[in-house]
Design brief:
The protein is of the alpha+beta class. The chain is built from five helices and 27 strands.
Length: 386
């Protein structure tokens, strides 16, 4: 962290006054209740706010508001609500296989499942995470030479972590990912970053190791061909190698100054980065420069998936769905009979595509997807250089 970054962090910390402490205490009480109450049973879960959907073997699992988790064994035709020990909103989930998976959400919560999403246990929350951040910052401060810049940085990290402890579990985690090296990472707002090497039983704070002096929010992680990228607010991109001995994250060239909300690694090796106002970029191989891909939308793109046939689908915050059949070089919109702000999508074992968002769940069978593609504009938008 350079001197400018240190001064900027100090100014930010200085704006937190003692008058906010009573408010933080009341917020902690509300957090405690939400973390201690199981998710309420929902009469129509597919019409509730859903944030993400993923595949666990042949099962589909979706997560959403107030701890809602639902799963389907028939391609999304029928759903069962899972047993969840918290009632805070869940924002993302990942599965390592058909049984083991993790979900993250508000209040810094991380949940784990070992039965394909039917039941979950809490393995981290924002209160514990804040204490881990403080312990890591204090250890770094103690190891810093007196009077050094490292000591100045350590002091600021300790103050920042103390503020996290005082404010309680009021900040969300926004993504969770399992790297090629087996490390599990959970990241989120204001630079929150924690990792686990044992499947989520024990966690370590990584905030003091990441080059993010302004505490920008992380919106997600993506892995491809032995590298892992961490991306987020104001075009922040950090990267590390994951093959063999893993390295630390370092700053990487970014395609944008605007926020990056999603990323998709394709099987053939290219990587798509999704951003504000329909912005989209493609990198063919690790280390390659980013190329801008024009899209026919001007609302933020937030998530994507690659189908079994190699096609790529992207969804947007205004309800758009874009299709590419050439590895993400050109996209055109699908004509859907219904749309709403989407937050995630995934393909089921039978080829059905499930889209989730602010109004619940939309199910597209392979026949419906083909019809939507056939009735959409035939002209594609070609890529252009940055």
């Amino acid at each position: 962290m350079d001197a400018v970054g240190l001064r900027r962090r100090a100014v930010l910390l200085g704006t937190v006054g003692v008058g906010l402490l009573p408010m933080a205490a009341r917020a902690n009480e509300r957090v405690g209740r939400a973390l201690g109450l199981p998710a309420v049973q929902v009469a129509r879960p597919t019409q509730a706010v859903l944030q993400a959907v993923a595949r666990a073997g042949k099962r589909m699992v979706a997560v959403g508001e107030r701890g809602l988790v639902i799963y389907s064994n028939d391609g999304g035709q029928s759903w069962v609500q899972a047993r969840v020990p918290v009632s805070c909103t869940l924002t993302a989930l990942r599965f390592a296989d058909a049984q083991r998976g993790w979900a993250v959400g508000s209040m810094g919560v991380v949940l784990a499942t070992e039965d394909g999403g039917a039941s979950w246990r809490r393995c981290l929350d924002g209160q514990t995470a804040a204490r881990l951040a403080l312990q890591a910052a204090q250890a770094q401060l103690q190891a810093s030479p007196p009077g050094s810049e490292a000591m100045a940085q350590g002091n600021l990290l300790v103050e920042d972590a103390q503020r996290l402890v005082a404010e309680g579990a009021d900040k969300p985690l926004l993504d969770i990912a399992l790297g090629d090296d087996g490390a599990l990472w959970a990241v989120g707002a204001y630079g929150l970053a924690f990792s686990s090497t044992d499947g989520g039983r024990e966690w370590q704070s990584q905030m003091h190791r990441l080059p993010n002096p302004d505490g920008l929010s992380y919106y997600g992680l993506v892995s491809r061909k032995g590298e892992q990228l961490l991306f987020g607010e104001q075009g922040l991109v950090l990267g590390r190698r994951t093959g063999g001995v893993s390295g630390n994250f370092s700053a990487q060239p970014s395609p944008s100054n605007g926020s990056l909300f999603g990323a998709l690694a394709l099987r053939e090796g290219s990587l798509l980065m999704l951003g504000l106002r329909g912005k989209l970029w493609r990198s063919a191989e690790p280390g390659d420069a980013w190329t801008a891909v024009q899209t026919p939308v001007d609302a933020s793109l937030v998530a994507g998936t690659q189908l079994a046939d190699g096609s790529v689908l992207l969804v947007g915050a205004a309800g758009q769905v874009l299709l590419s059949r050439d590895g993400g070089q050109r996209f055109h919109p699908l004509a859907l009979p219904q749309r709403f702000p989407f937050t995630g999508l995934a393909e089921a074992d039978d080829g059905t595509v499930l889209l989730v968002g602010m109004r619940g769940l939309l199910r597209l069978t392979p026949a419906e997807l083909t019809a939507a593609a056939s009735s959409s504009p035939s002209s594609s938008v070609r890529k252009s250089p940055v």
